[in-house]
Amino acid sequence: MKSVLLIRLSSLGDVVLTTPVAANMNRAGARVAVLTRRAFAPVFDGNPTVDEVLIFEDRGLWGWLREIRARRFDVVLDLHGTPRSRLWSAFSGAPRRVRYDKRAAARRRLVWTKRASPGLAGNVVDRYLETLAPLGVPAGERTPRLYVSRDDGPSAAMAERLGSGPLLVVAPGAQHATKRWPAERFAAVAERWRARHPGTRVVLLGSPADAPAGAAVRAALPGDVVDLIGKTSLRDMVRILNRAALVLSNDSGAMHVAAALGRPTVAVFGPTVRAFGFFPTGARAVAVEGGPLPCRPCALHGRSRCPEGHFRCMADVTVDRVAEAAAAIAAGTST
């Protein structure tokens, strides 16, 4: 087994979670190539276990179909499981082809019945790592990792805005409205943290779509706030997160990046339950979630509004709980 192609095109968090698979294949002596979208290629910057990053946009669907076949990979690991990635795998000519099991049916049943099957135990990383078993490769490395040195900071312009003091990074957005903890609660936790850690600068990160959430945090948080939502490249975002003394987030790509960097991370989860496998992975990351509700989970990926109208899965997560989790994880006492 000399060469391996690992396929995962999106999204940011999912791409981050593939890194243990690459690490274990590298330990087994394979040359590892990763096929992903250009936007997510910086996830593999400096990664010593990945030999090559292939960019989907460079060739597109049919171009990569031809190129993958021409390269004669020994193994293709399909960690995406879409019609496109299945096509590439099927026509790759690779002697060994393995696709990860999304547990899609079990996850849908969980939404419908609110009962998790035993097959949903573990997290997405565990499901990716299952693809190694048919190859006889041990899954010794199970923690997602990004490789950024503490000296590898953001661009000079960004660094000037951030200053040299400690950073509290808040990522208040999420793709779906039901995954967003109220912005004023993020602001309240940030204000408590700043009171206990004088000199801390609050930094807001996220995509352009998260701008309203960022504006709401700014409106509720007195004092200096550096709003970089929609203003950073992924590379700069990674380097800013790598400087963070604490990261507060919803269920988002920034959460997985921060956890993979080993930064103290507290993520708020409402409609998404642990059995879906998306909770943050890492010794310094913790999820704070709403209590059991008969309507939870309400969807696989989130909704534009609470179908019950009360939004208790998020409303029941108090500022006190998140602030306490932040203090514990930063002190290294969280369990």
Describe this structure in words.
The chain has a 6-stranded parallel sheet with strand order 8-7-6-9-10-11, sandwiched between helices. It starts with a strand and ends with a helix. Helix 8 (183-196) crosses helix 9 and helix 8 (183-196) crosses helix 13 (319-331). Helix content is 35%, strand content 15%. It is globular and about 60 Å long. The chain folds into 2 domains: 3-135, Rossmann fold (3-Layer(aba) Sandwich), CATH 3.40.50; 156-331, Rossmann fold. The chain contains 13 helices and 11 strands. The chain has 335 residues and is of the alpha/beta class. The protein has helices at residues 12-16, 19-27, 56-71, 83-90, 104-113, 124-129, 156-162, 183-196, 211-220, 234-241, 253-260, 312-315, 319-331; strands at residues 3-7, 31-36, 52-55, 75-78, 96-99, 167-171, 201-204, 225-227, 244-249, 265-269, 285-289.
